[in-house]
Write a structure and sequence with these properties.
Helices cover about 20% and strands about 30% of the residues. With about 140 residues, it is an alpha+beta fold. The chain starts with 5 loop residues before the first strand and ends with a strand.
Length: about 140
Amino acid sequence: MQPLDQAEAIVGKGLSGDRYANCNGSFQTGDVVAPQEELTLIEEEAIQGASAEYDLQIVHADTRRNLLTRGVALNHLVGCEFRVGEVLLEGLELCEPCSHLEKLTCEGIRQSLVHRGGLRARILEGGTLSLNDPVTLSSG
């Protein structure tokens, strides 16, 4: 996990250089990237709430989610098309935390992120994602 100012979103693959796009994802089968493995997002507010309520020091990298958002209710984007900058995404399902995340990070993180672990999304139109890109609902 490493922070980047820009990343290339590739339809059917995910983010250039990401473990899933490189066919090294923890739950990946062979060299196929499932739509729900393409991109994950999490709210900064969710991380802050989880940290405060469970007395943990969680940072974005601990969540193992690709994008960090602010001021966006990600749970409401399931089933919706939306843009992050120029990239068109479809919200597929909530990204609930699993025991594997807890093994890689810290005890308690799984429980702290239940129902606020982010969103799994599929890339419908690729492009460059940049730091501070706005998140907007797609008009069609």
